[in-house]
Structure formats: C-alpha cells, structure tokens
Amino acid sequence: xxxxxGIPLPALLxxxxxxxxxxxxxxxxSLGLAVIFGMLHIINFAxxxxxxxxxxFSWLAMVYLGIGYWRSLLLVPxxxxxxxxxxxxxxxxxxxxxxxxxxxxxxxxxxLIIGGGFRYVFGSSGQPYSIPPELGxxxxxxxxxxxxxxxxxxxxxxxxxFATWFMIEKTRLGAYLRAGTENPGLTQAFGINVPVMxxxxxxxxxxxxxxxxxxxxxxxxxxxxxxxxMIITVFAVVVIGGMGSIMGSIITGLGLGVIEGLTKxxxxxxxxxxxxxxxxxxxxxxxxxxFGKEK
Amino acid sequence: xxxxxxxRVSKLHAFYGESHILHGMDFTVRRGECVSLLGRxxxxxxxxxxxxxxxxxxxxxxxxxxxxxxxxMAPHKIAQLGxxxxxxxxxxxxxLTTEENLLLPPRVGSGGMSVEELYEMFPNLAERRHSQxxxxxxxxxxxxALARILRTGARLLLLDEISEGxxxxxxxxxxxIIRELKTRDYTIVLVEQNFRFAAPLADRMFVVEHGQxxxxxxxxxxxxxxxxxxxxxxx
Lengths: 295, 235
What we know:
The complex is a heterodimer. Chain A is mainly α. Chain A has eleven helices and four strands, in the order ββααααββααααααα. Chain A has a domain at 22-225. In chain A, the strands form two sheets. Chain A has a two-stranded antiparallel sheet with strand order 1-2. Chain A has a two-stranded antiparallel ribbon with strand order 3-4. The N and C termini of chain A lie far apart (48 Å). Chain B has a six-stranded mixed β-sheet, with helices on both faces. A four-stranded antiparallel β-sheet of chain B has the order 2-1-4-5, with helices on one face. Chain B is built from nine helices and ten strands. Chain B is α/β, with parallel strands linked by helices. The model of chain B has no long low-confidence stretch (mean pLDDT 90). Chain A binds chain B through residues 172, 175-176, 178-179, 181-183, 185-195, and chain B through 53-55, 74-76, 78-80, 85, 87, 91, 93-96, 100, 103-106, 108, 149, 152.
C-alpha cells in the first residue's frame, strides 16, 4: 500500500505539497489579476513586475534599512500599492474608454520599464533572502519533511485569498465593488465615488502581487528576472479559470499548482508544459474559461 | 405645496459623443411638485434625466438643484445633493441579492425610509430578499429600483418609465406609491410614455420634442388641451 500506480506514496504526497505551495502563488497572483480585470477591464501585464518589486523591495529594506521579513510583509504591499495608485492616476485612468487592448499594451510597457529599470540598477544576478528564524526548519509530516516556511506560504496565501473572497462577496464594501463592476455609471449615480473605488481596486491588486513577492523572496533567488517564468504560468491560470471570477481564480491557481506537482511525479518532462496543455483543452471546451461567463 | 423652486434646468444641451441630443431644455420643478416629461420615443426625455445625473457626454447650460449649480459635478456629487435616480432599464444588479440591491445606495439626505417601512410597502421584496436581484419578476424589479432610492433620503426623484411593460395591477400599485410619495412632499420628475399613468399624477406636464420643451400643460388645463396632446403623442 505504499505505492499508487507504481509511484511511492511519499513522493506523490511530497510533490502534492510542493504543488500546493506553487499553487498558492498562482492563486494570489491570478486573484489580483481577476480583481483588477473585474473593475478596470484591464489585463494587468505589469503584474509580474509588481510581484518582482515586492520581492526586491523586501530585499532592499532588509539590506539597507534593516527592516525584517514580518514588517516587510505588511509595509512592502502598502508601498507597492501606493505605486499602483500612481500608475492608475497618471496612466491607466486615461484609457478606460478605449479598447481593452490599449490597457494590455500600456501595462506591458509599464512592466518593461519597471523590469528594465531594476535590471539597470541592480543587475540580473539573484540575491539571497533568508527565511525568518521563526519559520526555519521543517515539520515531519510522516511522508516527508515539509519546510515550515513552505507551510506558512500555503497558510498565508490561502488566508489572504479567502479573506479577499469574503470581502468581495459577503460585505457591504464588496457589494459596492460588485455593483461598480457590473454598472459603474449607475453605481456612481447612487452617490458612490466610483473613480476612487477603481483606483483603490488597482492599488489592492498591486498590493496582492507585492504580497506574493514578499512571500516568495525566501523561497527563491530575488532578482529583477524572477517573475518571468511565474507570470507566464499565471496568465495561463487566468485564462483557464476565466477572467474576473474571484473564487475561480483561487481554485484554478491551487488546482494547477497541484496538477503541475503531480505531473512531476508521473512524467517530469511535461511538468513545465502541463499548464499550457490544460489551457488548450479548456479553451477548446469552454472558451470563456472554467468559471468565466460567456459574453 | 410650497412654491420654492427645487430644480431649475436652463439652456441645457447634452451630447453623446458627436450626437447632439438636448437642444436647450428649459423647465423648473417646485419643491413637492410632481411633473411629467411626455413625448415620443427619441424626443430626449430619458437623456434629460441622464443629463441631470451627469451620465451623458458633454453638457452645457445650467442645472440648479436645491440652490446648487450641478452642471459641472460628477454623478456621485449630484446624487449627494439628494437626488434619487431610477433608470429606464431599472438597473437591478445581478451580482447582488435583492437585499444588497436595496441597501446599496448610500444615504444622501436625512429622513429616508427604513428598510422595515420599505418591506411593508413592498412585501414581495421582503419575501425574496435573499434571491439574486435579477431573478425577480419585472414588477418586483421595478419595486426594488424604486424602493432602493427611497431608503437614501433623496428628496428629488427622477423616475424613468417606471410603468413600462408592467401588468395593469402593478401599474396601479405604482400609481398609489407615487401618490403616497406626493403626500410626503417628495419632488418627482416622471418620464412617461404611458400618458394615462402620468396624467392623473402630474401637477404639470412638459411635452418634449427634438430635445426641447415644446409645451407646458398644467393639470387644470388638461381637459382643454387633450386634442393637442393626442395629436402630439398619439394617445
């Protein structure tokens, strides 16, 4: 009973856990994209750059300001959120009335500028960011030793994801957001300041990306290039889940992380492609994505 | 009914992109008065309400609401002057439950009706408070669209075609509600296609043609000018 389809159970469960860790990042990032798309109808190509900034700023804060991991986890998203406000006020707000394609191009340009700027100043070599001492070591789960930090990544991102879901689907503020997403003109005619809400939504989405960045810093080499692989997968996740669905993006993010992890066990060569294979299949069957609504 | 002016619209022009829809609307509404904008489809009645709310493209002229010039205000600022808007398509949100729809518009004045009062006025809404807003019947959706602006304390109500496409018994109920609102001193602008619905409710009627006021008819003059209205509106 220690094998399933000829695969040792510990290996299977181990990859499942690691898949969940990756899936947590996918969920956080695609959630931010979904929130932004719902309200702004902009496909935020700058998301990867904002994620990278989250990690880079925590590294900079540690090295130059002595600000540790826990404070970064709070301060960096706030700071990047403020950068999000600047991007929205100075750039995005002028193109809402244009075709969504312009938003995609504009944010892609923003991503290139941010990425290029960081490479120019910091080069492309990776910097180490150490795991906070409280989360060092590993837990023996019986079938594997799971580093505490990775467990924390799953817990923290799921908490943030479900808190976001709850806020949007179950609260008064969320009702404003849903109303503003569905019919911005009428919602504003009820006395709700929709332009400010749109701005704060973008800031919130960017803060989510930065949060994922801070969370990722101790698990990887922090560098201006760190987002390039991640973000392509995340866009595939968003396409699979369907743009704009909150719960859809969370579930799809986690699910694809797990699928990726399991593929590593069964056929490792395909693990980096499996997400795109799923994407092709989903697009053939449901062009609007698993949780998307057909227009 | 006091004679103070609550809404003064003068030389109002409004555009949608390149199309010029309103060509100098001029009318006033007194506090506590109910007026109706009548006219053919495309005459500019709905656009007048949308222009009052700041929902059209470019606007010029003047809109004074309760003493405040609103022509350059953003829609949310206009609403905060105490204006409640019920759009022609009703604007019930499908992503919100009935109750969330009802509670959505923030307060814009004091003395709005309580939720209990509204549920008493519209018992169907209480029964279906947890249903998705757009699952309600057409009549219930219209009640909801009306109820949610009565909660906010708005004193000026802009109601666009509220009787459209509804069963006679529901239209009758809406008429009773408008009468009730008149006794509570609400100022009401009714845009109506249904002359028979609007005529008994309105203190004055404005006939809109080509984005302008073509005629003003007081309730007392109505009988004498039926021929004119018949010709104009085909009623």
